[in-house]
Amino acid sequence: MDEPLFGAPPVTVAPGAVHVPGWLGADAQRTLLEHCRAWASGPAGTRHHTMPRGGRMSVSMTSLGWFWKPYSYSGLLPDGTPVQPFPEPLAELPRRALDAYGRPLTEDDPPYDIALVNFYDADAHMGMHQDKDEHADMPVVSLSLGDTCLFRFGNTETRTRPYTDVELRSGDLFVFGGPSRLSYHGVPRTRPGTAPAWLGLRGRLNITLRALGRP
Ligand SMILES: O=C(O)CCC(=O)C(=O)O
Ligand SMILES: [Fe+2]
């Protein structure tokens, strides 16, 4: 990515969990937003998933590379058509993110082959959960666009305290791996209306990049 516009030093939130404020510059954010809009309105579509107990997720999700539904990945969309490929415009982001995280990608690492794009309107949130449907233990790379959110990063044992609350703003990078890879985390709320005016997004987008690995 280009030089951070309003970058600040990385903050280690928990061992293996690093927040890099302002990692994406304005141009990179605008370009990424355009792509996200195209993916969500294209064949990949966007869905409010229904959870096993019947609840509907308030977040609307677009899956690329592999299709996620609670709680597994599939190569096919629900209508039986193949999932859209992992997007070329995202191809270099995992490498750059892992450099910023301080754990450079190696040739032996499984590829980052999943991109999940989450859209939060003013009322959306995400409960505390673990990202544990991937087989590889590669760090999860998370990018935020639009409204600021309250991101809660906890521990591997419980959904509850101890946790650390972090404000994720437009352009921020958050990476969690190593001892934090299976930590519970969630988004209790966003802060509607806080997106930078120049971005032209009402709401919040979060893009996570992940490696599925082999079962
Ligand atoms: O929206 C976020 O910042 C977190 C999203 C998340 O935890 C997920 O997609 O698994
Ligand atoms: Fe997650």
From TrEMBL:
Gene3D superfamilies in UniProt: Alpha-ketoglutarate-dependent dioxygenase AlkB-like
SUPFAM superfamilies: Clavaminate synthase-like
Record-given protein name: Alpha-ketoglutarate-dependent dioxygenase AlkB
Highest taxon listed in the record's lineage: Bacteria
PROSITE patterns named among the record's database cross-references: FE2OG_OXY
GO molecular function: dioxygenase activity
Organism of derivation: Nocardiopsis coralli
Keywords: Dioxygenase, Iron, Metal-binding, Oxidoreductase
Fe2OG dioxygenase domain ranges (all copies): 111-213
Needed co-factor(s): Fe(2+)
